Every structure is written in C-alpha cells, then in structure tokens.
Amino acid sequence: MLAQIWLENARRAMDQIEAGQMDNIRRAAEAMADTIAVERWVHTFGCGHATIPVEEMYPRIGGFVGFHPMVELPLTFFTNIVGGMSVHQFVFLERVEGYGLEIMKGYNFDPRDCIWLFSHSGINAVNIDIALEAKRQGMKVIAYGSVREAEGKRPRHSSGKTLFELADILVDTCVPARDASVPLKGHVDTVGPVSTIAFVTAVWMTVTTVAEILADRGVKLFIHPSHNVPGDTTAGERLSDALAEYKRRIAGV
Q1: What pTM was computed for the model?
Q2: Is residue 235 within 8 Å of 225, Cβ to Cβ?
Q3: Torsion angle in degrees (nearest 10) through CA of 8, 48, 43, 253
Q4: Which of 13, 48, 128, 150 has a CB 3.0–4.6 Å from the CB of 198, allowing a cystine?
Q5: CA-to-CA distance for 66 and 245, rounded, in angstroms?
Q6: CA 1 from chain center: how many Å?
Q7: Which domains are delineated in the chain?
C-alpha cells in the first residue's frame, strides 16, 4: 500500500535526523537558549509550506515565549490556488531578490537575536536575502532544510550562495530533493511529500532542547497551556500571563 510506503519514508527521515543531527540540534538549541535567556528573540521565517514549522512552534500549546514568527502573507497564504495570492504569485515572489530585505525593514532586530530559517531547497532569493541581512546586523543564522540534497544546486541569488552556505548553524532534515516520496503507477511525478513532517520533527526536538537548557539554568518559561483540560482552573490565567509576557517583550520589535 502506498500509505505504508509514505509512512516508511517519513520514519526514515525522522530516524536519520535522530542518527545524524542531534549534535547540530543541540548547537542550535544552545544559541536559541542564549538569546531567550536575555529576553531577546528567535525570529522564525519560511516560505510556502516551510511556514508550517513557523506556525507550529509559536503560538502553540506547549510552546513558550521567545520565538517570534515572521509570516509574510503573500508567501504563505496561497490556498486560493488561483486568483489573488495564489501559487503563481508565490512561486514568483519567493525568487525575487530584494524582497527579503524589504521584509526585514518591517522589524527591529538586535545582535543578540537569532534568525531561524526553514527552506527545503535553500536556493530561493527571499531566504537568502534574509540570511544576508541578518548576518549584516550581527545575528546568528540558523537554517533547517535538506542540506545534503542541496549540494551543487545553483542559488537564485546574485550572491552565489545558498541559504545553507550562509548559515552559522545547520540542521539537515534528511529529505530527498524531490520531497514527494511515493511513486505512482502511470505518472512521472511522485506523491506524498515528507518535508513537513521532517521540519516539525526537527522543530520540536529543538524547542524541547531549548526548554531543557533554560530550565537547567533556572530561567522561567512562559508556556502556553492547554485550556481544554477539565479541572485545570488556572490554565486561563497561565495563558494570559504568557500572552502578557509576549506583549511586553515584543514592544520593541
């Protein structure tokens, strides 16, 4: 069954992340913990389906204050498929050099911040723009994507560098370049992408490690609780506290 093939491919990516990326995940988590410990931000960004890990980590039950999602709507909302903000525009925009720099102008950054970028291919201009500008402003650049599969690819950017060549810390999501992993009878193209499940796996392996590091340092985390558990009478108060802390810290961004 094709469902079983997809499941095996997803498991393979997760197993490969565990086998080969734990040291890199720890390095990324330590950099993020250093940032959050001084009440600065881990800014997160991706395009298209690489926005899903950004939306997954914060705000989210079990997530905590310290991660700042940078979600550029034209690069994210293309479920219209055709018409306004649709696939054609998205594919064009993520390749436009200079667009990422304009996105960065909308925020205030600090050299103590990190920027955490998600890109399966690492070759599109927007992510490269953002990485270059983040480095210019003194931030550490952390990139997650299909690093090994991107070797030898030509970037769509005049710098001549891929996102993965620019990053200070890399985590390989161990996904094939094609992403869609299941062959289908009578068709050239495969179905069943696995990059999203690999991204989300790597995200929570990282974020839980950040939490562990900060807790060991005695840093109080403002965690989003589930507000759907019967009998938990203080969940609403804890959620309000987390949102208030986010609001306090984000004022300068």
Answers
A1: 0.95
A2: yes
A3: -160
A4: 13
A5: 10
A6: 31
A7: 2-250 (3.40.50.10490)
